[in-house]
Amino acid sequence: MDTEGHPGKFKLYVFETSHFCVRETMKETMGALREVPLFTKLNEEELGILTGIGAVRKFRKDRVIFLEGDEFMGFYVILSGSVKVYKLSADGDETVLHILKPYRSFAEAPVLTGEGVYPACAQALEDSSLFYVPAVEFRRLMERSPSIAMKISEAFAVRLMELNKKFGQLSASVESRLARFIIGEINANGSAKSPEPFLALAISKKDLAAHLGIAVETLSRTLRKLKDRKIIREGSKKMFVLDLKHLRELAR
């Protein structure tokens, strides 16, 4: 559906899926994609082209987006909500690889590697709006536009450096890992400068522990220590920072 007969308006995307109806204007989607690290170097025209080949999809909380081994059809960008990327063992044990928030892309690696299946599973942790980029159209776009291909390739390289840095942080203490996570969240939600910075606990402690690479019991003990030292406090599905200076010292 579009806005034919209404000059000056942007195209309206309407998708009826098994999840729920999606209505997004091209302008809104372009504005969101501009914040995505993978696309920050694209100019207005290039963002418009990219927006034109994709679609907005919404997933209810706990909805599986894809499973490991499913045929690779395209990758996603989170516009709102949060997504868990994980792997399942043969025994059904779950290992969380990433907990992703708005403006992060995921499942894009097969576009470059040529793999035909998704290498991991993905699930919405809350009601989420995602921008879906079909692989075939994206590859064609990269072939037609060397400028777009170069800019996105450079962003991929930066993403790889970030992942290497994250793996290096796994040797840090549990307190340091948890402190870095909390600081990253309050910086992302803009509450770092408020009298009492906070973060919404959209994921379970089990998922958070897996994300940090520690046991649930270890996470619980570490949270208790931080609360006893008056560094944080926990409310209803929220965590509040009482001593940001001390928390930053722990994150070093």
Report, as a whole number of angstroms, the end-to-end distance.
52 Å
The CATH topology name of the largest domain reads Jelly Rolls
Under the CATH scheme, the architecture of the largest domain is: Sandwich
Q: Give, in spatial order, the strands making up the sheet with the most strands.
A: 3-10-5-8
What number is the mean pLDDT?
Answer: 84
Question: What order do the SSEs take from the amino end to the carboxyl end, as H and E?
Answer: EEHHEEEEEEHEEHHHEHHEEH
Q: Point out poorly predicted stretches.
A: 1-23
Main sheet summary: 4 strands, antiparallel
What is the helix tally? 9
Compute the CA-based radius of gyration.
20 Å
What is the 3D shape? Answer: globular
CATH-level-4 superfamily name of the largest domain: Jelly Rolls
Number of strands: 13
Please provide a written account of the structure.
It is a single chain. The protein is built from 9 helices and 13 strands. It is of the alpha+beta class and 252 residues long. It folds into 2 domains: 12-169, Jelly Rolls, CATH 2.60.120.10; 172-251, Arc Repressor Mutant, subunit A (Orthogonal Bundle), CATH 1.10.10. A 4-stranded antiparallel sheet has the order 3-10-5-8. The chain has a 4-stranded antiparallel sheet with strand order 4-9-6-7. It has a 3-stranded antiparallel sheet with strand order 11-13-12. Strand 1 and strand 2 (22-25) form a beta hairpin. The N and C termini lie far apart (52 Å).
